[in-house]
Amino acid sequence: MDCAIFGLIVADLIAEPMNVRTPPPPGGLHLINSITLTTGGNVCNTGVAMAKLGMKVAAAGLVGRDVLGAAVIEGLRQANVDTSAVFTTDRAQTSATVVAVEPGGERCFFHTPGATPMLDAAAFRQCFPVFRQCAFVQVGYFGLLPGLTGDLPQVLAELRAAAPNTKIALDTVNPPASWELLEPILPHLDIFAPSRTEAMALTGEKTPGAMVAVFRKHMKSGLIGIKLDAEGCYLDDGVRGEFIPAFKIDCIDTTGAGDTWYGGLLTGLRRGMPMAKAGRFANRVAADCCTALGASAGVRGYDDTLSRI
Fold first, then answer.
1. Other CB atoms closer than 10 Å to residue 16's CB: what's the count?
2. In terms of Cα–Cα distance, which of 114, 119, 163 is closest to 141?
3. Residues 6 or more apart from 18 whose CB is under 8 A from it?
């Protein structure tokens, strides 16, 4: 198995175009183009992107025993993502988000955590049989796993002992959890790539190089990246840092762009690409994501993507 993605499994209800700045009056009605139920969260967004890029991927997490959970699991299976480590509960609904896509592609979110807060150290350990088979394990999001975050240093150390050849990555969300919670996690990571906004909140720094320097004090080895939105990304492997520009596109929807970027990066690294090429590949995947509605519809196959970097 190339990668297991642990964390948020979300049913996304995408509405577009939805002008939340000027909503209809009470009792009023605005017509929009479409409302689509799709998969969301880092598990689905990153996992489906990697599967479309030809990787063997497993989803790991928790959904409610409800129609949304059934729909998300079916969506993952149709995308050729292994769901043997996706567990169900009748104690909470499936995590769900209404994604309001504004004209121009920017979006805002209305979210119910549902079953996500139930993800804890025991749930993480339950996934070890799958994790041990994988080259990479990505955990996300740092900031939306209240039941697990405090125990991450311990369970990641256990995972390292159980699967010493598995590389561990952490994904973040805006706003992230606190620096005090992140600091003891960093030494256990092989890959850490927050967005610029998240990195600024965590470090107080404004430039990618300075942000990386703060993280590097606690993450002595491995790859640190800063996602720079429409500007591209900055990657640092501990030897050198490099800015990698983005691809120019006509943006339709930015939903899932950061997650698909991460999926592209993990795919490039798994394929043996050097750092700069893996970053350029990740930028291409994220750009393609933004050309279609939803978090993964625009992602293309590996050969197609590689041919356009």
1. 21
2. 119
3. 32, 100, 101, 102
pLDDT at res. 109: 85
pLDDT at 20: 86
> What is residue 22's predicted lDDT score, i.e. its pLDDT?
87
CA distance 75 to 171: 22
pLDDT value at residue 104:
77
Give, in order, the Cα–Cα distances in Å from 134 to each of 131, 152, 283, 295, 300.
Answer: 5, 18, 24, 24, 23
Two structure tokens written together for 41:
């969260």
Contacts of 225 by beta carbon, 8 Å cutoff, 6+ apart: 191, 192, 193, 233, 234, 235, 236, 265, 279
List the 223-227 sheet strands across, edge first. Answer: 82-89, 57-64, 3-7, 136-142, 167-172, 191-192, 223-227, 232-236, 241-245
Q: Are 228 and 205 in contact (CB under 8 A)?
A: no
User: Which residues of the chain register pLDDT less than 50?
Assistant: none
User: How many Å apart are CA 98 and CA 96, to the nearest integer?
Assistant: 7
Structure-block tokens of residue 115: 């079953």
Distance, in Å, from the CA atom of 216 to the CA atom of 274, rounded to the nearest integer, reads: 20
Residues in CB range of 54: below 8 A, 6 or more apart: 267, 301, 302
The token duo for 175 is: 């706003």
* pLDDT value of residue 101: 86
Q: How many other C-beta atoms are found inside a 10 Å radius of the C-beta of residue 79?
A: 18
CA separation for the pair 190, 176 (Å, rounded): 19
- Please state the pTM of the whole predicted model: 0.92
Percent of the chain with pLDDT over 90: 88
Q: In this predicted structure, what is the pLDDT of residue 108?
A: 86
Per-chain mean pLDDT for the chain: 95
* Alpha-carbon gap, residue 67 to 71, rounded angstroms: 6
Going edge to edge, which strands form the sheet with 96-101?
Answer: 34-40, 10-16, 96-101, 107-112
* SS3 state of residue 69: helix
